[in-house]
């Protein structure tokens, strides 16, 4: 019996129709990145596990796809070790590589490895797939694309402001209504100090980052499980639920965190960013959200998250500042900040809202109907002229029935069909049919380019 073809859960095939839409997203995002002086970069799909492990926190490490060593990967493992089933130890022996979890850690590795060839500040964008061994569900995939933009080698807050501008411009062009949430890990560290649990910063941030998903009660329950005292949890509640404008929240925070130097530094950084943004015509809503924590452990300053307002889905963009990431690879004092656009979720949002440009599905602008060899010889030079002019054009490859050729044009959503029979050849014209309106007209060959443009 023939095997039924399938793909792994959490992955997807992309048909030509879908790829046209995806490329529209990629091209839009890429064009904005270029506007701000960012250059393209690509890194391998797999990295050494030593590069990836320990960079995403304990939960992130569990979601890394590990790759078995080539050949006899069990050769260095004893029978007793197999029977012991110590999975972390076994993994270290049989796996040296893993699929990248995100684009930021490979970027940091690249910067350190190529530091003598790079001009700093180094601004790069990267559009590639990443993999996470997560449980597939709506809006969450095991393989998905990220569109990252980062600048490393500068601790100026102008970079944070620029990233907000990029987010604003991208979503304006894609016509998606969004809200940008912003916070600062220094503020979160200050909150942990203020409630008396500075040593529990990671546990606190991991828990409160789930506020939107599991609610305050479950967040508090998780904090209790992690050993945070009831008194500290009680102190935390009014801080996380501060109301008012961004300026009012910052003023209140300044008072709440007055005993924490780190916390006050975070408030100062946020205040500077908001002050710059007030001078710019930012169209999207930018909101200070103290429950925003971003689970990745390498963030040290500003953190960002973008939510779509018209569709129920997780964040579609996120990022932040990471002062210590290259230090892990031996390169100290190299601050960076970046954001990542989730192309797959952006696609789902645009598809659900039906806001892709209607002509984005028409890769071919005009199809020439094939009536036979004589007609082919007449059409081929015209096709070349159209393509030189940048007009996507094709001819049906064989003289099939007219009904079949017109059905082909319909299925590919080709807006124009050209018919060239004996009469058209004699008069050096084509009959141009508009597939949307059904109207037909005779067009002289020299006028065809201008007509289609």
What would you say this structure looks like, in words?
With 453 residues, the protein is an alpha+beta fold. The protein folds into two domains: 16-353, BirA Bifunctional Protein, domain 2 (2-Layer Sandwich); 362-452, Anticodon-binding domain (Rossmann fold, 3-Layer(aba) Sandwich), CATH 3.40.50. It is built from 18 helices and 16 strands. The protein has helices at residues 16-35, 49-52, 57-62, 79-84, 87-94, 104-113, 158-174, 185-194, 201-208, 211-225, 230-240, 246-256, 261-278, 343-353, 373-388, 402-411, 422-427, 445-452; strands at residues 39-40, 46-48, 66-68, 95-99, 122-131, 143-152, 178-184, 285-288, 302-308, 317-322, 336-342, 366-368, 393-395, 416-419, 429-434, 440-444. It has an eight-stranded mixed beta sheet. A five-stranded mixed beta sheet has the order 13-12-14-15-16. A hairpin with a 5-residue loop joins strand 15 (429-434) and strand 16. Helix 1 crosses helix 14, helix 7 crosses helix 13 and helix 12 runs antiparallel to helix 13. The longest helix has 20 residues, at 16-35. The radius of gyration is 28 Å and the shape is globular. The model has no long low-confidence stretch (mean pLDDT 89).
């Amino acid at each position: 019996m023939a095997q039924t073809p399938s793909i792994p859960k959490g992955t997807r095939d992309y048909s030509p129709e879908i790829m046209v839409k995806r490329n529209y997203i990629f091209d839009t995002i890429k064009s904005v990145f270029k506007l701000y002086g960012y250059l393209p970069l690509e890194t391998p799909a797999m990295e050494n596990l030593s590069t990836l492990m320990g960079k995403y926190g304990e939960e992130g490490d569990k979601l890394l796809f590990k790759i078995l060593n080539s050949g006899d990967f069990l050769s260095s493992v004893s029978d007793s070790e197999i029977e012991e089933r110590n999975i972390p130890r076994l993994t270290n022996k049989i796996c040296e590589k893993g699929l990248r979890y995100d684009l930021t850690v490979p970027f940091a590795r690249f910067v350190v490895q190529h530091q003598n060839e790079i001009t700093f500040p180094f601004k790069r964008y990267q559009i590639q797939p990443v993999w996470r061994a997560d449980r597939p569900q709506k809006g969450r995939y095991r393989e998905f694309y990220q569109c990252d933009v980062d600048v490393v080698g500068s601790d100026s807050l102008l970079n944070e402001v620029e990233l907000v501008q990029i987010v604003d411009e991208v979503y304006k062009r894609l016509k998606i209504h969004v809200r940008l949430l912003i916070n600062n890990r220094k503020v979160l560290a200050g909150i942990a100090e203020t409630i008396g649990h500075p040593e529990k910063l990671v546990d606190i941030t991991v828990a409160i980052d789930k506020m939107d998903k599991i609610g305050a009660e479950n967040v508090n329950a998780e904090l209790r499980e992690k050993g945070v005292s009831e008194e500290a949890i009680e102190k935390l509640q009014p801080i996380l639920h501060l109301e008012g404008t961004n300026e009012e929240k910052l003023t209140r925070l300044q008072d709440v965190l007055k005993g924490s130097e780190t916390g006050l530094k975070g408030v100062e950084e946020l205040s500077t960013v908001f002050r710059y943004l007030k001078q710019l015509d930012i169209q999207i809503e930018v909101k200070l959200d103290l429950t925003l924590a971003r689970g990745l452990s390498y963030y040290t300053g500003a953190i960002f998250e973008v939510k779509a307002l018209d569709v129920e889905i997780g964040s579609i963009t996120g990022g932040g500042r990471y002062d210590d990431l290259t230090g892990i690879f031996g390169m100290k004092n190299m601050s960076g900040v970046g954001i990542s656009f989730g192309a797959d979720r952006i696609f789902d949002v645009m598809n659900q809202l039906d806001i892709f440009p209607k002509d984005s599905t028409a890769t071919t602008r005009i199809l020439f109907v094939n009536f036979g060899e004589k007609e082919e010889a007449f059409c081929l030079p015209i096709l070349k002229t159209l393509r030189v002019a940048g007009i996507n054009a094709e001819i049906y490859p064989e003289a099939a029935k007219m009904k079949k050729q017109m059905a082909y044009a319909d299925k590919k959503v080709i807006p124009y069909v050209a018919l060239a029979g004996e009469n058209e050849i004699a008069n050096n014209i084509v009959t141009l049919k508009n597939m949307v309106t059904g109207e037909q007209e005779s067009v002289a060959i020299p006028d065809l380019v201008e007509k289609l443009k």
